[in-house]
Amino acid sequence: xxxxLMFALVAGLAASAPVHGQAxxxxxxxxxxxxPVEPAQxxxxxxxxxxxxxxxxxxxxxxxxxxxxxxxKRTLPAGAHFGYLPAAxxxxxxxAARAYYxxxxxxxxxxxxxxxxxxxxxxxxPLDTIEALAQWYAGYGVSSQDFLAAARSFAVDAxxxxxxxxxxxxxxxxxxxxIVAGKYRVTGTSAGSYEQLFEVIDFLVAKExxxx
Length: 212
What we know:
Blueprint: H1 2-27, E1 35-36, E2 49-55, H2 60-72, E3 80-86, H3 91-105, H4 109-122, H5 130-137, H6 144-151, H7 154-170, E4 177-180, E5 184-186, H8 188-191, H9 194-211
Helix pairs in contact: 2-4, 3-4, 3-5, 3-6, 3-7, 5-6
């Protein structure tokens, strides 16, 4: 009798395990809520799970959701690392990408990040060339000459080329898009909404962390 009860218990647990696992998988499905990056791309975050936002200052949707991104990224676990990858698909977008990298090199990126979105989209300032952007960044204590030198440097040229190589490998054809661990691509459309977008990214970060 005892053996029968033990067998029934084990059988019941075995039967319930796939259902539970299936429920977890079905909450956010590959091919629906997110898409595998094939082949997976190497990351630069060491042991941490890398989350990249592919964006552009020239992108109006990026401007709308960036305050949400700014709040959400502060909630990432210690085992995750957040970064930005500017898209450079056209001359104005390349100028914005160069501005991002130049501002980073000159130590003013964080202070100027959200204000630049504000200037371009709320104030509608004509900041579609690197020269105009250099003048705008002068308000952050960076001379236009230093900014242009940084934006046109060999190091920034290399990072622009790297971005242009990575985006097709990630399968990114629009912004904003998020890449998790070099393996998964998520957008607001795939997630179902920009509110749910961050839940899907959190799910993928946990999924990747759990597999390591």
